[in-house]
## 1
Amino acid sequence: MGVAYAVWSGVGVTLVAAIGWLFLGQKLDAAAVGGMGLIVAGVVVLNLFSKSAAH
């Protein structure tokens, strides 16, 4: 349950920021883009390598 919550939270944060950038003109600096990249990387690591994630 915790892994699924982490994945959906990370995806949600990234999507909301991307929607703000694409449709609402929000400016994203390098730190914001890097942070979102780390979130996506964390989700990928959880799904590919964690034995806690259900497949």
## 2
Amino acid sequence: MDITIKSLDGADAGTVTLADDIFGLEPREDILQRMVRWQLAKRQQGTHQTLSRGEIARTGAKLYRQKGTGRARHGSARAPQFRGGGKAHGPTARSHAHDLPKKFRALALKHALSAKAKSGGLIVVDELKSDEAKTKATVKRFADLGLANALIIGGTELDDNFSRSARNIPHIDVLPVQGINVYDILRRQTLVLSKAAVEALEERFK
């Protein structure tokens, strides 16, 4: 698959051939759904917790005698039915993460890249560099490229001026190639890859 390389100023800067086994697959929604679910479950905190009746700081003495009062038979005041008692079947702190094979995760990333390429939401730029860290100038360059909602992936090292100028722009994410992931690719309308990122991805999936 051949695609035109753009410069950040919107001019053509040649062409690049993308590997069909990475960018030319037929996207499968079931694979992408499982991958996104794995990512969101892994980052879920799971720190919510309530106190059970065994953790309540309250007397465990019997409320009143068993017989002769005409009232129900109650024991501890820490029981869930009493105000100030423990919570029955409440949430406990735990990890929500589950396993997903490494090969499956790699396949899901290929399908996400292929989905963007197939839908026309993939742009390749020659390099991600700025002479100065000016957000206003970067906003104009993005407007010339038609980028309003995009994930931008650079090489292993990001240009400091470019990343600083882009980090305050709404709906724009900038990541090094090591941080590329399925969820961020799908949540943004356009995927922008630098030439270095394309080379790194093809090397990664060799």
## 3
Amino acid sequence: MDFVYDLFVVFHLLGMAAVVGGYAAAQPRVSELMVWGARAQLITGIILVGMAESIDSLGKDPNMPKIITKLVVAVLVAGFAEMGRADAKRGKALPWMTHAAGGLAILNVFIAALWH
């Protein structure tokens, strides 16, 4: 089961890379890469927390205040990415949505790495 958990960690990190990398590459528009990365972050994050909570053999003890904070930020990232991409498809890109999605994704990286 450790392998499956680690595999979801890899997918979670790839989602983060897609959002942050897409932000760096696609300014001032939200790219499809950012949208799919934000979706992957939400889905894999929820799966990881579910696995950590329910499988004792993993030996994980999730920090729930941190998880809730990251979830709120991830939902905001996904929301701004979805809205920004929809606006870009209609030809009215709003750069602040791109910066909001990218900046919040970077904030989530800091929360993940620095909050112990």
## 4
Amino acid sequence: MNECIFCKIIKGELPSYKIYEDEYTYAFLDISKDAYGHTLVIPKKHCTNMLDVDEDTYCHVQHTVQKISKYYVENLGYTGINILNANNSDAQQSVFHYHVHIIPRKHNDGLDVWPFHDSNNEIDLAKCAEELKYK
């Protein structure tokens, strides 16, 4: 993937603020600067998102996400972690290389990362469960 921005970061063709690296994954700060410590974890192997990643690569990414998250909480004084991931355009994925966002949190940090605040009373949970049930 010659045009993939994350592949270019992995190859060293573009700069990044590296947080962690191992044989399979690379973690770096998100350049959006929307939250202090906002970290992205990506596989070194290109895949579009969680829907097409192979199981081994997925497990390596999740292992790194957990490792970094625990480090932030156990060693750096954070008291919570948000883990976010978007898959495909309609879910607001903006870079089409599988990645997981880690947003380290502290009490009263002022961040609001949940997109929903009010219940949608029009949702029939029984009908919804029947439609979504894995078969």
